[in-house]
Write a structure and sequence with these properties.
By secondary structure, this protein is of the alpha/beta class. It is built from ten helices and seven strands.
């Protein structure tokens, strides 16, 4: 069994889902009393969010690279960054470590293509929805990606940071997300990526007839992704 290095705390609410899903997967695969070998480093999200808001991505890359190095030295065989947005600095982190990073966007793109999806809506932070670092993994895979209009981007982003990251689940916010999902459907989307690890706390597949691809679930179910070195097994 490989040892998984988790960079979590962004936010801690969604990191708990990673720990639970990984251990449930190991239990399902191996049975008995088996559980996952995990090294978890949980950062202070207030520090990381400050660097996001001020556009200081190099500083956030430095912080997370230092964390990744500590996990590698502690014995991790590969790294999982427990958030979509901070994959923006995954290349900088990868340059400083010798173990692979399992990229959440690539894992999601691979899953969508396996399901025959070609056109997909994307929900996430404003950084994930509007910047290239995340969408390029999907575009390079031949997927067409839709995002909300400007007001929708701001609304989705606000709910993530002001509510979901604080564990605050509001019914009206769920309805706002479902309205955007319906807009994606009307624009020809075949599915929707829940491209923030907190969104799955708010919107469930039972809430809509659109196929939802929760990146938290996907990220924890594709340990053999090619960009993680191929052949990684828990």
């Amino acid at each position: 069994m490989k040892t998984i290095g988790l960079i979590g705390g962004m936010s801690w609410e969604s990191t708990t889902s990673y720990y639970q899903i990984i251990n449930e997967t190991v239990k399902q695969e191996l049975g008995g009393l088996h559980s996952a070998k995990i090294l978890l480093y949980s950062v202070d999200f207030a520090e990381i969010e400050h660097y996001q808001a001020t556009g200081d991505w190099e500083k956030s890359a430095q912080v997370l690279s230092d964390v990744a190095l500590k996990l590698e030295k502690a014995g991790a065989d590969f790294i999982i960054i427990c958030t979509n947005t901070m994959h923006k600095v995954a290349p900088q982190i990868q340059q400083r470590i010798s173990i692979p990073i399992l990229h959440i966007a690539q894992a999601t793109a691979d899953t969508l293509l396996e399901q025959g999806i070609q056109k997909v809506g994307l929900l996430g932070t404003k950084y994930t929805m509007t910047q290239d670092f995340y969408k390029e993994k999907h575009l390079e895979s031949g997927l067409e990606v839709l995002i909300p209009d400007d007001s929708g981007v701001e609304m989705v982003n606000r709910i993530i940071y002001d509510e979901l990251c604080l564990g605050n689940i509001q019914e009206e916010s769920k309805q706002a997300y479902l309205n955007i999902i319906e807009q994606f459907k009307n624009s020809g989307a075949e599915a929707v990526i829940l491209g923030c690890t907190e969104i799955g706390l708010l919107v469930k597949q039972s809430d809509t007839d659109m196929s939802l691809f929760d990146t938290t679930l996907i990220h924890n179910s594709r340990p053999k992704s090619s960009d993680a070195g191929g052949g990684i097994e828990w």
